[in-house]
Every structure is written in C-alpha cells, then in structure tokens.
Design a protein that fits this description.
The radius of gyration is 31 Å and the shape is elongated. By secondary structure, it is of the alpha+beta class. The strands form two sheets. The chain has a five-stranded mixed beta sheet with strand order 2-4-5-7-6. The termini are far apart.
Length: 300
C-alpha cells in the first residue's frame, strides 16, 4: 500500500513537471512567433535556423511565409516606384509636344489659309485637345489606382467645393446657352476637397456636354443621417436603362455619344474617387428625360 502511494506521488509529480515543461516550451515558441510577427510589422524580419521538432517546424513555416511576404512587399514597393516614375515621365514628356502642337495650330488659324486648310487646322486643334485630356485623365487614374496619390478625407463644408466645380464649368455652359444652377447649402461631409471637386466637375461637365442648347443643369445637396448626397441633374438626352450599369466602366462609350468629345474615363474616375473615401455614386435616367447622377459622401 505504501508503495502504491509512492508511485502515485511520483506519477503526479512527473505530470506536474512535464506540464510545466510543456507550458514553458509552448510559451517560448509563442513568444518567438510573436516576436517574428512584430519584426514583420516593423519591416525588420530576418529568417533564423530552427531545429527539427514539430513546433519548430511550425516556426519554420511561419518564417518562410513572413520572408516571402517581406519580399513581395518590397517587390510591390519597387513596382509602384517604377510606375510612379513612368507616369511622371509620360506626363512630363508629352506636356511640351502637345502644348507646341496647340500653339502652332493657333498660329495657323491666324493665317489667311484656304477654307479646306482651315478645316484641317481646326480638326488638328480638336484632336490635340482630346489627346491632352486623355493623357491628363490617364495620369490621374493611374496615380489613384496604384496608390501613388491617396485620398485624404476630412470633415468640411461642401459649398466651397461645389462653388469651385461650378465656376470652372460656367463658361462652357454659357457658350451653349445652358442654365447652370447651384443651390446654396450649409451641409458638411467627410471628403477630400481636391479629388471630390474633380469628381463633381466630371459630373457637371458631362451634364453640360450632353444637354442641348437652352437646357439646364442643377446641382443640389440632400442630407441623410449617414451620407450627404450631391445630385447633378440635367435636361439632356438621358441614358438607356440597359446601359446604366455599364457607364461607370473604364473607357466605356455609348453608341449615342461616341462621336462627341470624351474618352470614357470621367465616370470611372468619379466612382474610384467616391469609393476611395467611403462613398458611392448612382445614376437615375430615362431616354429623352434627362439624367441625375448622385454622389454620396460620408457624414462622419
């Protein structure tokens, strides 16, 4: 009987010691893993040598994964830097030639040219403007999509941003005899002023472009609990229901407007700007009855 108690005590003591050893070993392994993750977050992780135990095998796999992740992140950063340089080069290298083309076409327009030659000069200037707009839009889009430029939303009044967007399009509206009306508002939202102005300008520009002479374009703001809605409503040709899901796609051009100016990037850029700051954009339209684009901005 005494021997039985001694055996029980020995087994219990061994179990306690083994449990303590296992606990300390697991704690050491988890501490190593935690340290590796901390190094990975700081960007200072380096792989180490491990033994062949099962837990160390897990450590090894985690080390390989983190090493691969670090390499992927470095490669991604390097690719972004290359893209950034490429975009900067394209923007810089094309700016001067396009400006020169437009300058020379303006000089030609001042000359006493035959009517058929003047037609060619006007077409050349139009194509140069289109090329300039395309390159500028592609540069903006590429910077947003690659994260080179990030949106910095902050809470502010929407009125100054809308005033700037409308003022830039007022001459174009006046030239077509279109009434451009902006309702005065006192609402605030969380948005990046520069890029949101770009989005609103694209919507207003489209509205003016596709509204016939004598029509009207109205910009209004409707507040909700979570969102501030900016509506751009025109009295233009409208958009067919089957096309409304396609118009926010990159380079999409409806057959109805394929002959007019534009390259099909504006609405795609609007959607990218809206989603990049927690908002979204919707469209309501009927053929021959005008269109309303609604840009939703977060309130908080």
């Amino acid at each position: 009987m005494k021997l039985f108690y001694i055996i029980c005590i020995g087994v219990t003591l061994f179990s306690v010691l083994y449990a303590l050893y296992s606990w300390r070993r697991e704690k050491r392994i988890l501490s190593k893993m935690n340290a590796m993750l901390d190094e990975a977050i700081r960007g200072t992780f380096t792989a180490q040598d491990f033994d062949e135990s099962l837990l160390s095998s897990v450590e090894m796999r985690l080390a390989h994964y983190l090493s691969a992740s670090m390499v992927s992140e470095k490669n991604l950063c390097a690719e972004k830097d290359k893209i950034k340089m490429l975009i900067a080069d394209i923007s810089h290298q094309t700016k001067t030639p396009i400006a020169n083309i437009r300058l020379y076409t303006q000089l030609l327009e001042e000359q006493a040219l035959p009517e058929e030659s003047m037609t060619c000069v006007t077409a050349l200037d139009s194509q140069a403007k289109k090329l300039q707009a395309l390159i500028e839009a592609l540069v903006k889009l590429s910077r947003l999509e690659t994260g080179i430029i990030t949106l910095n939303p902050k809470k502010a009044s929407v009125q100054p941003m809308l005033d700037n967007a409308v003022a830039a399009l007022q001459p174009k509206a006046d030239a077509k005899g279109i009434t451009l009306e902006l309702q005065t508002v006192e609402e605030t939202a969380v948005f990046d002023p520069k890029w949101t102005e770009e989005a609103v300008s694209n919507l207003v520009d489209n509205a003016v472009k596709y509204t016939p002479e004598g029509g009207s374009v109205t910009i209004s703001v409707i507040p909700y609990e979570l969102f501030c809605r900016i509506d751009v409503t025109d009295t233009g040709m409208g958009i067919a229901e089957e096309e409304q899901a396609k118009i926010f796609g990159r380079f999409y051009r409806s057959e109805q407007v394929c002959e007019s100016e534009g390259v099909g990037i504006g609405l795609y850029l609007v959607r990218q700007i809206a989603s990049g700051q927690g908002g979204y954009v919707k469209v309501r339209s009927s053929l021959g009855k005008g269109t309303t684009f609604s840009l939703f901005l977060a309130r908080n």
